[in-house]
Structure formats: C-alpha cells, structure tokens
Here is the input.
Amino acid sequence: MKILLACEESQAVCIEMRKRGHEAYSCDLLPCSGGHPEWHVQDDVLKHLGDGWDMMIAFPPCTRLTNSVIWYIRKYSLGDEVIDACIFFNKLLNAPIDKIGVENPIQHGDARKLIRKYDQIIQPYQFGDDASKSTCLWLKNLPKLKPTAYVEPRIIKGKKRWSNQTDGGWNKLPPSKGRGVLRSKTFPGIAKAMAEQWG
Here is the structure.
C-alpha cells in the first residue's frame, strides 16, 4: 500500500510499515528524527491528502486539544486556537483516503463538541511498553487494535504505576522546550502493532 504518516516526525510507524514492504512516507512541518529523510515530506500535510494514498495514519498536534491543557486554554482565552486545531483534526479524519487512523490523547470537552467520539482507547502497556498514556484512536475502515503484550505495573500505595510515571502518577518529563515533541513520539509497541494489524 501507499501509506501517509501525517504529522509524524519520529517516523516510528513509517519505519515499521516500510519493514512490511509498504511505500510509506512520513509528513511533518519538522524535519524527521527517524533517520530516513528519503521517506519524509517536510511540508504542510494538508497539501498532500489527495496524492493517491491507500491509507493514512495521522498524529495531529494535541497542544490545544488534550484534556490536560484545558486550564491553560481558558486562562489565556485560546478558544480560537482550539477551533483551528479541531478544523485541522477533522480535515485529516475526513480526508479522501480509504483507510484512516487518527491518534490523539483524551480530548477536553470544548474539542469534543467539534470532533466526533473516538473509536478506541489504548495504552502503551498493552503493547509491550512499560508506560501509561491514554491514547484515543479514530478509525475509518480499520479494525480496532488488539493488545499484543501486557506489561505489569509497579504498585505504589495501592496505585498502578508504569516507568514513565512518578509515584504520584504524573509524567516524569519536566517542562522544557522540547517536551511536546518528546511526549508525542509513538511508543514502539504501538507502532509495531499498527504495522502488523493494519499493514
């Protein structure tokens, strides 16, 4: 298949799809960090949605959509940016491509008014990665992902904790300029499952 990995600078899923023989390309405004610039289109992905793809897996930016930032959005009156992010998300979800999967964290209520409900929630620890991060999938002509390998958590004061979490349950990555890019990278187990089950 000819596969577009939209908003994927890491090339995690692109590389897994290439291993399975597909003609896969990542596309992002950022240069790729996956080591294969020959498989990367550094451009606005909206310009390439009509380029004859059989499948697209998209990872749109979540900085104005995720539930964890709603306090920031309301504090700084960023409603217009939320609307723009929802429009972009829906353009990907409704692109003229036969098979589509769109990935994002759990979204806040303002975004959910403009974006249809997700089809599935997955966790990295269901796919062999020692990490917790609720990840929603919106699917078109693709099956729900089936878990491949469960990673047992630590139990801290009766609560489940994986390696990317503090004992209090917060993500261990401190605030930094590159935190958003680091947090958005696809976990290897999920990338492999997408390639094996959808490719």
User: Anything to note?
Assistant: The two ends are 8 Å apart (CA to CA).
